[in-house]
Write a structure and sequence with these properties.
Oligomer: single chain
Structural class: mainly alpha
Helix content: over 70%
Radius of gyration: 25 Å
Length: 141
């Protein structure tokens, strides 16, 4: 990261104090975007570097916003992991369905594929669900 920052700083990127008027802010944004594009930086790199260009009010805003975004991302990751590890356990089937449904939105890679949703749902069910289901159909005697 240090080398990346040094390279970025060597181009003399503009800073933003947060007290500029709207036209100056737009101009700053245009300049910084052009620099990022010419350096072909990924969004991740841009986010890491942009904070170094803020000063005063802009820096305070950025630090607050960054913490809020990190918290939101962390929350989404935690919920995604909770979905991936969801098992029925002591939940009744209605509770399991409700929990599964509420957590599914944190796993868009699963939600967009009906087969993956079905597999995840079935894999989380207690094994005795299948035994009870088969007995109720008369499959097992």
């Amino acid at each position: 990261m240090e080398t990346l920052l040094k390279r970025f700083q060597s181009f003399g990127p503009p800073t933003l104090r947060g007290t500029e008027n709207a036209v100056d802010c737009e101009s700053w944004l245009d300049d910084i975007e052009m620099l990022f594009e010419s350096l072909a930086y990924t969004d991740e790199r841009r986010v890491k570097l942009i904070g170094h260009q803020f000063q005063d009010v802009a820096k305070s805003w950025w630090l607050t916003t960054k913490r809020a975004l990190e918290h939101r991302v962390s929350y989404r990751k935690d919920k995604g992991a909770e979905f991936a590890n969801l098992r029925q356990g002591k939940l009744n089937i209605e509770e399991y369905v409700a929990k599964f449904s509420s957590l599914l939105r944190f796993a868009p890679h699963v939600a967009e594929n009906d087969e993956a949703v079905s597999d995840q749902f079935i894999n989380g069910l207690n094994p005795d669900i299948f035994t009870l289901s088969e007995k109720s159909r008369g499959w097992l005697d």
